[in-house]
Amino acid sequence: MNMKTNENEGQEFALTFAAAWNRLERRFDSSLGAIKGISLAEYRLLRALSIAPKYRASRVDLAHAVGLTASGVTRALRPLEKLGMVSTVKSQRDARLAMANLTSAGQEMVSDASGVLDDTMASILGRAPKLAAKLNPITELLDSVGR
Question: In sequence order, what are the residues at sequence separation of 6 or more whose Cβ sits closer than 8 angstroms to the Cβ of residue 65?
Answer without folding.
Answer: 44, 48, 57
